[in-house]
Every structure is written in C-alpha cells, then in structure tokens.
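CORE FACILITY INTAKE
Project code: CF-77B
Contact: R.S. (postdoc)
Sample description: multi-component assembly, two entities in total
Requested service: structural model of the whole complex
Turnaround: standard
Below are the sequence entries exactly as provided by the requester. Do not edit them.
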Amino acid sequence: DGGITQSPKYLFRKEGQNVTLSCEQNLNHDAMYWYRQDPGQGLRLIYYSQIVNDFQKGDIAEGYSVSREKKESFPLTVTSAQKNPTAFYLCASIGAGENEKLFFGSGTQLSVL
Amino acid sequence: SQQGEEDPQALSIQEGENATMNCSYKTSINNLQWYRQNSGRGLVHLILIRSNEREKHSGRLRVTLDTSKKSSSLLITASRAADTASYFCATRAGGGNKLTFGTGTQLKVEL
C-alpha cells in the first residue's frame, strides 16, 4: 500500500542523548514535512524539504536537525539541545497533482526518561 | 507562529445534531484546508477551499470561507459517534508549499 511510514511509534530519550525519528514515503512525493504537536494543541512546523538535498527551517527548528538524501526518506534528529522534546511528532508529504493536500504518517510519541 | 485559531476549543453534541466549528486566520491565503485527527493518530485531509471560493460541500461536510473577515467554518451535518475527533484548519499563503495549522477543535459526539 502507498503511504507514509513513521517509526518507531514510541521512543524514549535519555538526557543528553540524540534520537532519530524515521519517516519513509512511497508516494513519490517531492515535499516532506515534520510537525510537532503538544497535548491539546495544534501542529507547529519544525522543518520541511521541497526537494532532495534541500530543506528549510520551520517555526521551531532549534534543537532539531534533518537530512534529505533520498526522495523517500526525511529523518528527524532531536538533539540534546532540545530541552523540551516530549511531544507527538508527525511527518507529512505532498505531491504535485495531489490537490495540495498533505498526507500524514501515524506519528511518533517521544518521551524523556 | 500559528496562523489559525479554532473556535470553540471543544464541542460536545448528541448524535444526529449538526456541529459547527470556526477558524480565523491572520494573513492573506491561497487556500484553506480542514483536517481531522483521531486520538493518537495522524491527520487526514477532509476538504480544501480556495481563496476565490465561498462555499464547498463534500458529503456531510460544508465549508465556507469569508476572506474579508479572514475566517472559515466547517459544518458537519447529522453527526455520528464516529465523527468524534479533533478538527484542524490549515492555511497556505504565498506560492510555497508551507501549511500553517490552527489550534484545533475537539469534537465529541455522544450516543
């Protein structure tokens, strides 16, 4: 089936540790996004990439890093500089001719030990 | 910063009633979209309305857009328990592919 796969579903981070969240899509979409969602709140844009080997900071990029070496993959690293990483992380993509709508993965819940 | 603010934050209705939620935004937009999120899951696209459109329908969904007031509303008619979810508006401004989401409305439909 075509779609976006995020893994793992649950992730725990120790203090001072970097962790990487995986996002893979087989929709042949050019643009991919990472959003952070805090309990009872909306989505805030962390990073986005419109094409391979290119990405831009969103509204809350500090403490996060990304790479886009392949069209299918857009991993997000939560670094030790992110002091409040506990949140629900959502990956999304959009493709040309998709009527401009975002397709979302099922999310990763990150918690701090 | 979040472009949209939804109102109300939470809404509880009985099955069969209509549910209306509103979204206000701050800057000019190309289009406005509504998404649904079940608890602990990703978002699912519901409907898109362009800045030159005033109303759009999709099944039991009706969306209106008032660009002069920078606001939109989503109406779900004849609600069902399965409609229980959070609903978010999202706006696209300018020529890029960046979508900015509102704070969401939590809808609970009771039997």
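Facility notes:
- The radius of gyration of chain B is 13 Å.
- The mean pLDDT of chain B is 92.
Invoice: internal transfer
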